[in-house]
Amino acid sequence: MPKPPHILAIRPAPATSFLHIEQVDLEFSNGERRTFERMLPSGLGAVMIVPMLDRDTVLLVREYAVGVERYELGLPKGRIEPGESIEAGAEREMKEEVGYGAHRLLHLAALTLSPAYMTHHTHVVLALDLYPERLPGDEPEPLEVVPWKLAELHALLEHHEVSEGRSIAALFMAREHLAGRYQP
Amino acid sequence: MPKPPHILAIRPAPATSFLHIEQVDLEFSNGERRTFERMLPSGLGAVMIVPMLDRDTVLLVREYAVGVERYELGLPKGRIEPGESIEAGAEREMKEEVGYGAHRLLHLAALTLSPAYMTHHTHVVLALDLYPERLPGDEPEPLEVVPWKLAELHALLEHHEVSEGRSIAALFMAREHLAGRYQP
């Protein structure tokens, strides 16, 4: 289990930052006007993968998260690259972060982070029929892979390194789908 | 059901914007260095409420979300105000958005949006033993309140206005708690 990284410096981001903020003036149908701010993504969206090692076991990763300055346990994820489909991005990220490819990929949902002030979408992809294959990624250190039983999601909620809403949502959505109750 | 608002103007946000971006230089324990960007919240955090009208029925709200430029169906939420506890903020937002207070409030979780590049936390509060009481809010139009059965969350996942990861996560967490499987 790696030690967390050391923070060398913190400074305001330059205007060329990958995150951008804009203001939007709105007029509601009742004539009310408001100005809201929202964050623009720089890229093509994100992909989050639910990699099923077998029918009951999902593979989680433990990765340093600078927003909260600790390690977070959740689903593997990453940005979709130019020219890549959602499924191709999902399989590449899986190979980089958990060391598996998948013979079957299913687009489960497009989740938003905070639709009130973010335009971001995260595509959730269920990965089945895994096979071992590793691709080199751009991670600063290897990620710890943690298998977890889908029947034990309630116990995962109590884990002190589990906090990401979209990761928890994606796990329950996958469980509902695999139980035959939810079709994307 | 109101018509969506009209967008009058969009422009880059000034430096006084409520959203701020900063860069962080990191050195990992293996000596690798990276610079990451993260978004800073301006306030005291957000609160998201799971208001239970009875043991099986949660009250959702339908609200315009400028990040995705459509109405979103999800849990009531808002920012915690200066001097307010999490529970007081939860009850105020409930009274403003759904027209109910609660005799029992339980802090279920602190969810993150994207811990890799956001410092934001959303406190999830379960509200039980509701009573009717309305407070005037700052909403530009009244929110539509939509009751939903907790046993039917799988059907909610298929609703075209449901996309917010933390709202879906909070609903499943509340269901696990009410079923006696998860304790915060």
Domain count of chain A: the total is 1
User: Which oligomerization state do the chains in this entry correspond to?
Assistant: homodimer
- Largest sheet, spatial ordering of strands of chain A: 7-4-9-8
The main sheet of chain A comes to: 4 strands, mixed
SSE series of chain A? EEEEEEEHEEEHH
Structural class of chain A: alpha+beta
Fold and architecture overview:
2 copies of one chain form a homodimer. Chain A is globular and about 55 Å long. The first copy, chain A, has a 4-stranded mixed β-sheet. Chain A has helices spanning 86-97, 153-156, 165-178, and strands spanning 6-12, 20-27, 33-40, 46-51, 57-65, 70-74, 77-79, 100-112, 121-132, 144-149. Chain A has one domain: Nucleoside Triphosphate Pyrophosphohydrolase (Alpha-Beta Complex). The longest helix of chain A is centred in the last third of the chain and has 14 residues, at 165-178. Chain A contains 3 helices and 10 strands, in the order βββββββαβββαα. By secondary structure, chain A is of the alpha+beta class. Helix content of chain A is 16%, strand content 42%. The mean pLDDT of chain A is 92. Chains A and B meet through strand 1, strand 2, strand 3, strand 5 and strand 8 of A and strand 1, strand 2, strand 3, strand 5 and strand 8 of B. Strand 1 of chain A pairs antiparallel with strand 2 (20-27) of chain B.
